[in-house]
Each structure stands twice: as structure tokens, then as C-alpha cells.
Design a protein that fits this description.
The complex is a heterodimer of chains A (558) and B (757). With 558 residues, chain A is an alpha/beta fold. Chain A contains 20 helices and 22 strands. The chains are: A alpha/beta (558), B alpha/beta (757).
Chain lengths: 558, 757
Amino acid sequence: MEVCPVDCIHPAPDENGFRSAEMLYIDPAVCIDCGVCVAECPVDAIYPADELPESMRGYQKINADFFIGKPPTRPFPLRTVSPPGLPGAAPLRVAVVGSGPAGCYAALNLLQVGGAGCEVDIYDKLPTPWGLVRSGVAPDHPGTKGVTRLFAEMAGNRRLRFLLNVEVGLHLSTDELASHYHAVIYATGAPLARSLGIQGEDLAGSHAATEFVAWYNGHPDFADRVFDLSGTRAVVIGNGNVALDIARVLLADPAALRKTDIASHALQALCGSSIREVVLVGRRSAMHAACTTPELLALGQLQGVAVTLSPADLVLSKAEQAHLEKSHVLRAKYEIFRHYAVQPLPAAQPPSVSDKRLTFRFLESPIQLLGEARSVHGVLLGRNRVIDDASGSTTIQPTGAEQTLETGFVLRSLGYRGAPVCNLPFDRQRDVIANRSGRVTNPATGEPVPGAYVVGWIKRGPSGVIGTNKHCARETVAALLEDARSGALGRPAFGSHDIDALLALRQPEQVSWEGWRNIDRSEQFDGAQSGRPRVKLTSRTALLKAAATQRHEVEFAQ
Amino acid sequence: VSSGSHERVALRTCPLCEATCGLSIALSGDRVLRITGDEQDVFSKGYLCPKGTTLGDLHTDPDRLRGPVVKRNGVFVPVGWDEAFSEVARLFRPLLADPGPDCIGVYLGNPIGHNLSGLIYPRVFLKALRSRNLYTASTLDQRPKDLSNALLYGERYTLAVPDIDRTQFMVVLGANPMVSNGSLATAPGWPRRLKALVARGGRLVVIDPVRTLTAELAHQHIAPRVGTDAALLLAMVHVLFDEGLVRMGRLTDHVHGVEELQELAQPFNPERLAAYTGVACETVRTLTRAFAASSAACIYGRIGTTATRFGSISSWLIDAINVLTGNLDRIGGAMFPMPATGSANTRGRPGQGRGFVMGRHHTRVRRAPELFGELPTSCLAEEIDTPGSGRYRGLLLVGGNPVVSAPSSARLDAALPGLDAIVAIDPYINDTTRHAHVILPPPSPLQRSHYDLHFTQWSVQNVAKYSPAPLPLEPGQLDEWQIMCRLASAVDGSNQSVGRVDERLVESIVRAGVQDESSVVFGVSVDRILEQLAPRTGPERILDYMLRVGPYGDGFGQTPSGLTLEKLQQNPHGIDLGPMEPRLPEVLRSGDGKIHLAPSLLMQDVGRLRLDIDVGPATGLQLVGRRHVRSNNSWMHNIPSLMTGKERCTLMMHPVDAQERDLQTGATACVTTTTGEIQVVVQVSDRMARGVVSLPHGWLHDGLDTRLSTARLRPGANSNRLADGQAVDRPSWTSVLNGFPVEVHALTTQSQKATQK
């Protein structure tokens, strides 16, 4: 956005809607086709209109529509190239805990603006970096994973180290970290799943969506999970992007999945899957579906999968109608649902073996998971209705009508949830580490905890896209550098040699960047043998073995 | 949000590159709100690149000097203009008296080519200085083309440009106009025009060792070994003769030297050259046949063919192929523009000139010959740091930063403090001007009027457009032409007023006109013409004169409907003077009125090429340059909106070359030559062929005492620290900046240390 010479990419960070934006829009009336942003986009999401792939044609209109009714162009905003946040070679040693997008963007920003004396160590408890980009992003979204190229590029910087397979809380305490670095940035994300809080949630066959995602993406802690895919219908509670990812993976043609980097154990299980229908259940109406427009639109491209919903689910209340007219994003999403609703009505029974179905159901809440012999065999759903209040907002009320949806496989996709990190102050209401603008604060006194910072989901809760972290990281790093300048960061008692010595003692199986490169090359090599982008190693033993085996890219370049 | 009634729009042609795009500048008071492409501009039709949007940032850049500065005790101190010019006189006049004018060097940078004052007024201070030591940026860049133009057509700027809007077959050699906006062929919106060529069914072939954006657009991309384009072109000439494809048509009567060229090309069959060029013989033959078969084809080459070891041969053979296939001066081929303000090929006797001579004087140290009155910039450092009689003592810099842009740049940087007097006309304290004793800053582009005197000579469509200055000068500011006039009178000691210097200049220009038998004002009295030019002064007066005596002019009343400056002022989006028309033979200014297809200077140089072919292709890595749409040679790097985003001063290299050196994107590499060493961030890319690495030029802004606060934050690395000023294209003495051997190795990184541990 900041490379655009004519300020045609919106919403900008200083504009309304930036934090909630599901994508950024390019104003075709202002864009000069210079292509500068194309090379900058970490996820290869920008195309000239005349080069849009067939499957993305709809985006030309989506972009243009965003600017309808918007005020004319504003004056060019002032751009700045950040000066080093610290003078000259002032030493600043920072640990970043977590190597997902938030941690990596923070490290990147620190290296860019932290001055010549700034050194960054990135820790991760896994032998592999990139957090949810590796273990969360759906395997059929390789473009989104392209952001790791940006992060890998910073690995060449001599002021940065990756210390993988080191777990804070296990190998090192937060106090030990604090005594070895001027500052520590926690980017631990939101590893837990929200629960439904209803009866039957713990029955066999009911799982947290996050675990299923971690499983099919080959996260070593979830590789040995077993999911029963022998039924014909899966029910997903929730309709966010994760729910859509799961639905796509469950309904995908195994031949298509074989071209992705999905974990081999998941691929094998999905090959034997009998699931023909995935039902996505949402308590509110269609216009409030939690997924983003691009993901919803992409469902229409699935081969052999009918996307359906009942036209009755599209009826809007007066207040909703008014709301819809005001919001471009809601309108775009609603239009796509309308398009899907034109498809033939869902039959009562799951579809035949020859085709598959993805069904959205709205204004329904799960009341109970029904089970026998400790296994799920159905979901009891209660119908809701929309109540408009005088102020023009809406609430949901149960109508009392109930219906049972039979299934042996329920995935609860209500979002991720942050987890406390050792003794750092935790905000139980929001499930984040208590902080102000990235500075960890003591909730009782409001005072900052010296040298402790947060970034990403553990700072602001689990929302936003990968790119949101860039802005988030900038805020945290700015706070950190301000504290460095003002003298609020003490000098660490120990230096880099001390932490190396300590780690050698505590975690001899630490994996360096070069170790990860060996894993990476090994996975890509195995992938090249079978026509896949990579074959993920999914056990710690295999990962550590690969990390220790020197490999050169020349092997598969020739 | 629009600021309502106070908003106004000013139109101005962008002065940053050769493309001459029309800008529409929204202003509120003296504040630029935004800059967009002028949709009604007769030439650019709304096209714009990122650089043009930043003139407002350039105008408000706090680092840009607003008034003159003089160095006192090693520190620049702001002074008034009178004091600044007194200092210039104090520094230069004693040197001019003893040892004399030739102890002063003058360097003219590229920006003055885009500047109305800069194209007219240097002659006043050059005359005052009386030094023969003129250096220009063009000697680092286009000189081989200038030389071949002069040898073929009799005059350096008689340049045949590709008729890009009407051609059906275009071969682009060593150029990346999708990114650079084009050069030596002025066409706003090259990307649009190339896409239009493809859309109308035309064929685009790109010959470049790198898979550039232009190559990606092309139907065919041929990737020869670096630096072998001259041999490749010679092979194409060979095929034209060998397969009887020569069809010169109406050119036949105007061309000399066809047999000599045929004889020269005879041994260079593509079969023999394939190992050297890396291009299969059948590829060369097929391309040449298809090119010759087209009824409207042109071959065009740029920096990848000029700033190379055999730049003059390549420049010459590009035109030779256009001539032999009948495409020179043909619609859709390579044609000669007809600029509204005239040029050397519109003045004097049509169809015949005096030809040209070179080597009327030479540099002291290396005996490099003068060419068009200019000396090779690669010789500048040695003329300063080599002891002995005739060593330079003073330097006048005009809009140039040779410490960044000239080869062996570290040597020049070290040499400059040895000078007694350095005066610069420049808006910035950059890596070169930091050595100056006096800096005289011109106003910003938004405070200057504009007419593209130079680039209308190379424009693919004949157009004329004048833009008044969008913003006024601030109190106490001098216009650039006023600075140049005052510089002249300070140097010659006459202390004449700006007005008097300006009058003497216009009188001399008009006098030359009324004495030219071919001019429409031949025989008219000077005073009568000056009366008609009143009350204009400065560059506008001279521009009005040039337009009125030019090919479309009103001839001071002889053709009342003809062009005048007033008429241009009434047409702020420009006047379209129509597509290029065939101009042979009147365009020629060679001594005998012929095109010389086999100039002996270049024919002899083929011996040097033959030796190189016999030695065989170079091994190891070869460095070539790279363009970026947000860079403008060495400057505009202080504009924040052009400096955001990823690092772009990177060494691009092929994945396997990178792996062999244990390098990956983001790693820092050490690049060395016999001349120097730099450290630069690596960018691995399969755009590169194996054995080729690329680096953009114009970087390294790290001088501690520069005033470039944004550029210094992202200094980059300077390719000219690697380029050897001693390596030149023999006939033109142009430095080899594209295609020289480098060694690349990884700096030891911490991660590698960790592995070793």
C-alpha cells in the first residue's frame, strides 16, 4: 500500500475499516498500472485486470464496486522511510517468541528500523518456522504461503537467528529470557479452540476444528490424531474461513489434494473418506457469515461440489436490509449467497456418490450434541429469528423450533483462543496477554512490565488476515524502540554467548536456520519425487533427523 | 477529500525521463495535492509512471537547497547570491589566468537534457570559461549511438527511432522499456504501445540475457551470452546477404558501402558464431528471414547495446539491418522525427552537410579523443589525480553526480578533494557535490517552465508542448537560466547583468539564423526579429524564436497559421504535429549526402571483435545493469514515496549460481572486480540466465556529509565501484558498464557459524 505512488489501495491504515478489512481494494479509476505493488505483495494477490485468472474474474467488479459512492481521491498521503529507531550501533538484543507471521513481521520491522546494533533471535517450539502459515493455512492456498518467501529473505541477515525447537516455559523460562535480552516480544498466537459450552461436546466424533486443521497440515503434535470419516455427512459449527477450509478439504477430490502439501496421513485418510456433504451451521443470518468474500467466492470454483442454501435463509429483517445497503462488504457477500441459493434446493438426504454438497444453514444454534455409546450421532439445532430494535440494530432470539441433524462427525469452528504464557499477566476476558499498544501491562496497576511486548493474536485477539500483522508489528516495535530510547529497557544481565551456553545445556536438539533449510529441502525433494510442492515431515523425530542431514538444492535443480 | 474551490490544476510535462508524459497537477495554493496523468495530453494520453507523481515531494523535500551555499571551514554555509557568485569568481578567475582555461573541467549531467534552460544556457558559461574539457553523462551511455549516427548520417542526433505505433515487427535488443519507459526513442507509455503492437497482431522479439518484463510480453525471447550482441547482429547481417534478403528499395540510391559491409560480414555466419553468442544458428536465420519478410519492421537497441565492449559496432549494425531490409525511413520501420524547434538535421542545406570530425583535441593522460566537443567521463578522475602539467584544478558540475554514476567511482571520489575549486549547479548536497566549494541550487521542476527541446528530436510522434511553471519562484530565488548567466559573467569578470547576457545570447542565435541561406529568416534584420520576440526574455524568447523559424513555424508572419509560442500557450495539452514522415534524403547531413553503411572506423573495430570471438565466450559471472521504474539514475532516491517497500538495490542471480555460492535471497554477497569490491543483498531469480548477475546503477548514498536524509537510510551499493574506467568501447571511448566479469561470494553469516559449531 505504501509503495503505491497514487494512493489507490484502500482502506489505508489511517482509514475506517482497515482493521476489519477482509481484503484490500485497488481503485481502477486511479491506478496507473505501474505494477510496483505486484512485486511487493507477499501473497501474490495482485493481478492486472486483463491478466486475472479465469477463477478470479469476479474480483475486477469487487474492486471497482468498493469505490462506488466513496469520496473522490484525497491528497497524496505523506510517505516516510523510517529512520533507524536507535542511533548508530546502539546494542539492542531482542527475542521474539513464535515464528508465525506476527513474530516474523516484528523481526523484519526490527531489522529494518532498529539500527545497526539491533540483533534478533526468533524462537519457536517446533523444529519448523512460520506458525499458522505452515500449520493453519489450507493446503489448497499455496499463494497465501508465499509470505514465507518474504520471511525467508530476512534470514540472510546476519543480525537475525532462528532458534527452533526451543520452547519457552519448557527449555527457558520467561525470566531467563528477560535476563538475556533487552526486550522480548511474545508472538505466541492463539493455540486453543473456543468451546460451545453445550452438552455432548466431549463425545467421540466431536472435535475442535483447530485440531483437524493442525492434523491435515501435519503439525507434529496432532499427526497421530484419528478422525472417523466413515459417515456421509460432516457438520461444522461456524462459518468462518476455517470452517470453509475444512469443508473444502473434506469435499476435495483426492487427486487435487495430492497436488498440495497436505500431510500424507491426512491425504490417506481423506482418500478413504465417505463424506459427501458438509453442513456449515451459523446462528446469525447469511449476511453476517464470518467468512471473507474472497473465500466465499472461491467455493463456487470447487469441482464436483454443489454449494447450496435455502432461499428462506436469505430473508432479511428491515434493519438488516438497511444495514446491507450501507455496507459494500456485506452486500458483496450477500450477493454471493444469493447466487448459491439459486442452486437446486438441498434434498433431505445426502447427495449420491457421484456428487458432493456444501450446505450453509443460517439462524440455527446447536443446543446439544446427541450421542449413544459415547459417540456423536447427531446435532440438535434450534431455530433463531432476527429481532430489530428501535435503534436499528438486531438481536437473535430462539423461536423454540428444533430439528435434529444426523451426523457422526462434528467440528466446532468457533475460532481460536489465546493461552496464558507462564507468569505474564493474562486478560481472561479477551484471552490475550494484557497490553497497551503492544507493551505488556500489569492489569492491576496499569504499569508496563519492563522489556515485555506482544504482537499478533496474543496481543489483539484472533482476527485479521496475515497482512494485518504487518501493521500490528509496526506498532509494537515502535513502542519497544521508544522505550529503548527513553532508557526504559534495562541492560540484560547476560549476553548472547550466555544464552547459547544455556541452550546447549537445556535443549541440545535446538534447530538453526540451516537445520530448517535442510528440512525444507528434504521436504521439497520428496515432493518433487511425487509431483507435490513438498511432502511434510510430521514427527519430531523425522524433522530432527532431516534438520541434521546436510542437503543442497542442487540435488533437485539438476 | 477534495479541498473544494481553492483547488486548481496545472499542466506540465514530466521532466524526469525521456518519455515526456503530461502531468495534471492538483494544487491548493502552493501545495501539491496529487499528480495524475493528463488524459488530454496529445502524446501521453494520461499515461504516468510512479516517478511523475512525486514532483510535489521533490518540491517540498527539506533536503533540497533553496539558496546558494558556500563551504567555509569545511562546512556549507548559506549565503546570498551576490556572495556566492563572488566566491565563484574568487575561485575560478585566478585559475583561468594561470594555468589557464584548460585546467577547468566541466561535467554536464543527464537532467539538463530535460530542462529548457539547461539546453539553451550552458553555452554562455562554457564560452566564459573557454575550457575545452567538457564531460557529459551521455559519454557513459549513448555515445556509441551518437557516433554511429554521425558516421552514417552526418550528425549525432539524427537518430532513427522505432515507429512503434505502426510497426508490425519489432526486435528489442538490450532494452527493457516496459520498466525504463524507453530511451533514445521518446514515447510516453511504452508499455501501452508495446501491448498495442501485440494486440494488433504485430510481432515482438526481445533479445536480452535477462528475462525482463519486456521479454515476458514478447512472442519470442532470445537470450544470448552477455556482451555478444555485436556478433549476433553481424550474424544477422551475414544472413541477409547470404540468403539474398537485402531489399533496400528507395534507399538504394542514398546508400554507400553495401559491398564493403557484405564482404565484412562474409565470415560471420551464425553457425560459426553460435558457440560464442549462445544462440543457435537456426534461431538467427529464422529471425532474420522473418524480419526481412515483414513490410514494416524495426530493430531497436538501447543501453544493453551501447555501454558495452562493442557498443559502436552494435549501434551501427542495428541501423545497418534497418537499412538493408528497407525499413529505414519507412512507415512502421525506423524513422526520423521532425522536431518543431528544429535540429541540426533541419538547419543548413537539406540533404548535405559537413560531415563530422573527431579528435580535434585529446585528454592529457589517456589521449582520449574529443567527440562532438565532449570528452569521456571515464577519463575525468585521472585528469584530476595524475600529477603533471595540465592537471585539472577546477571543476564545474551541472546537474550531475559522477561519484555515483561514473566508473571507477571510488577513484573519482578520492580525487575530487584534490581540486582547488569545485562549483556545482545542483539542488542537492549529494556524494559528488559534497566536495564542492559553492553550490548554486536551481528552482524545483514545479517552479520551471518546460519544453522538450531535446527529446522532440527523438519522439515517435511529432508533437509540441509548452508548460508554464506551475508555481512561482520564491523571493530571492533565481531561475536556472539566470544562474547560468550570472555564472558566466562572474567567470569572465564582465559583471554583466543577467539581462545583458541573455540579450547577447539571443542576438547571436538570431544572427546565425539570418545568415543561414536555408532559414526562413535569411536576410532579415536581427533587430526586426528581436522586436517581434519582445517583450519575452529568457528561455521563452529563444524558444519562441526556435519555434517560429522551425519546420512548422510561422516564419515571423510568412506562414500565419504556423507555430509560435503563443499558440502553444493556447494549447496547454500540446499540439499533435502528426506521425513521423519519410525524410530521406533531406534529413542527411553527411558530406556527400549519402548514408555510409561501412564507416571505416567501425569496420576496423570488427577486428577487435573477431579476436574476442576467437578467444571464446567469457567464463564466470558477468555483471549487467538493471532498470527499476521507481529509480531515475542516481537521483530521486531522496523521495520517500519512491523508497518505500522492498530493497531494490539487490544483486539478482540465477538459482544455480546462487546455490553454488551458498547464497539465498536476502543474504549479503561480496562482489569483486579488479577495480573494487561491494557488499550487496542477493535476490535469487530465474529471470537471470546462468552466468549473469544484475545490479541497478545509481546507488550508494552513504557520504557522511551529504544532505540526503531519505536516500541515506537505504543507501544501496554502487555498481560503478566495480566498473573499470579503463575498459572502453574503442571507437567511442564509452565505458563498459554492461557485461564485465565479477566474482561473487557469500559473506560468512551467523547461521553458517551455527552450523559449523
